[in-house]
Amino acid sequence: MVKVAVVEGDGIGREVVPVARDILTAVRPDIEFFDVEVGYGRWERTGSACGEETVADLRSADAILFGAITTPPDPGYRSVLVQIRRELDLYANVRPIRGEGVDVVIVRENTEGLYSGIEWTEPDRACTVRVVSRRGSERIARYACTLAKSRRHLTVGNKANVLKSDCLFVEACTAEAARAGVPCTFCYIDALCLDLLMHPDRYDVIVTTNIFGDILSDAAAYLVGGLGMLPSANIGKRAALFEPVHGSAPDIAGKNIANPVAAIRSGAMLLDHLGDPVSAAAVEEAVDRVLSAGIRTPDLGGTAGTREFGAAVLREVGRG
Amino acid sequence: MVKVAVVEGDGIGREVVPVARDILTAVRPDIEFFDVEVGYGRWERTGSACGEETVADLRSADAILFGAITTPPDPGYRSVLVQIRRELDLYANVRPIRGEGVDVVIVRENTEGLYSGIEWTEPDRACTVRVVSRRGSERIARYACTLAKSRRHLTVGNKANVLKSDCLFVEACTAEAARAGVPCTFCYIDALCLDLLMHPDRYDVIVTTNIFGDILSDAAAYLVGGLGMLPSANIGKRAALFEPVHGSAPDIAGKNIANPVAAIRSGAMLLDHLGDPVSAAAVEEAVDRVLSAGIRTPDLGGTAGTREFGAAVLREVGRG
Ligand SMILES: CC(C)[C@H](C(=O)O)[C@@H](O)C(=O)O
Ligand SMILES: CC(C)[C@H](C(=O)O)[C@@H](O)C(=O)O
Predict the structure, then answer these.
(1) Which residues form the Isopropylmalate dehydrogenase-like domain (chains A, B) (predicted)?
(2) Burial class of B52 by CB neighbour count within 10 A (0 to 12, 13 to 18, 19+)
């Protein structure tokens, strides 16, 4: 029996996750789903966005299917997603960018960097410490190199010309790539954002630190139709969480117009992680066939609703 | 007599700056240029990339025309450009992005944030402190609001959902926009990178912190033909430095193929700063006419060399 925790979260998370869940159920009726409430809605109601028992619940699952969570820019409120990534030590954030002429995987360090949580406020300034650890750099470099080894090559996004903390990151990646025998090049993150847009065919696996990966993946979404398309996996040694790269998008929530592709593809990554590449591929292909048939949500210029798109994928999965 | 310091720097800086300088000379024969040697080449020869006398020389000028400088990712070598920005307190990095359907100005805080220079290495990790000061935030917010006031509206790029240091920045921008009566919205920097690419018409003036502005402007270059097109101004209370956004590009240096548009447009911004908007416009228009005539460097799909493009602009300026 496979146990999958489901966090719908806030906003469109509550619309796209049920769609993804139905599709997973169709291909893998043996999965036992259980809901975990986390997020801003819960915080408003109970004063806590995510408690310790919640983290324990998430830990007990074989995998987590996650929607999106609203974080108000309130100095007293810490991002729950960031908290979960750290508590479950989900160190590798893997973001495949696939589309017409684009096949890139961004591997983002997911537990430190500017997301260290080491912050303080003085009377006249506020500070955040960017932490690049040797262990953190080595393990993400190793993850990226293992992936690149089965693909083509590695690019290391960094800003070592300004941030001396990135010298350590570059060093770790250099060593790991040499060890793994992976061809490896380096690119400053600003230049990389642009060059990835201009020449996506030049890139294969990209590894970078936390916030650079955050920004780079959103920019890369431009190549494949926007954030509605991008899935992600947050991988740790003992836990794994799958979520669309997009946020909770309160402005379009509750209208049945959110694109569920990112969430469905995240579900496919979850299946793959559970050791079922066949079902994962079946879901991926069903999505591709529906898109090819011209069924699309409004963000892609179509007229299908979130639920209608989901129903179309469900039908295709049944056929596949 | 107007005195302009010229730093060609390294790589293609040595090719594009002379072109810009010739054009400035043509429209303003009264400018007295003087060369200042700064950069990697100097460091290799003398062991110092930029001395104190050099900074004093730069300070004595009415404006600085700057090329680009190579920074090796060597932990012992600090970026000279970052050093100059800080020593001359050039707090506003202004980057206009103009082209077909795009008219945006990115105003980037230029003296603190992740570029604080507060860094240290421990045995197992390296740290950089991101510093957001009230004074730093207020003055850049004021600069951006003054600009937005004469234009349309302001967007504040931030990551306050994760970085509590950005709450101070958001607060300062909110207060300044209210005071100036400027319509102001907020956008997380990752989402902003993407949305600016997808809907450039929704943006006018964007203000953000140091490294976010660095990355955002490179991504935005995608909208207007790449980095070869983007000029910038680094503005302080008592000094101003004008430079293309691109770097020294050692891979294409010395081949007479670098696009000098960014450097020439930086020259136009310099003229405007010196209180000569008429000459600035003359240079801008000459560049536009040459581009419209189909004369382009290879990065834009053309066959013109750096010098040939410059010569064409010189002819147009003469005609203007
Ligand atoms: C919501 C936010 C905390 C998150 C991040 O910054 O990592 C998001 O932007 C992402 O990319 O997953
Ligand atoms: C060369 C580098 C120090 C610089 C920066 O990071 O500011 C450059 O990328 C820029 O955008 O001006």
Answers:
(1) 3-313
(2) exposed
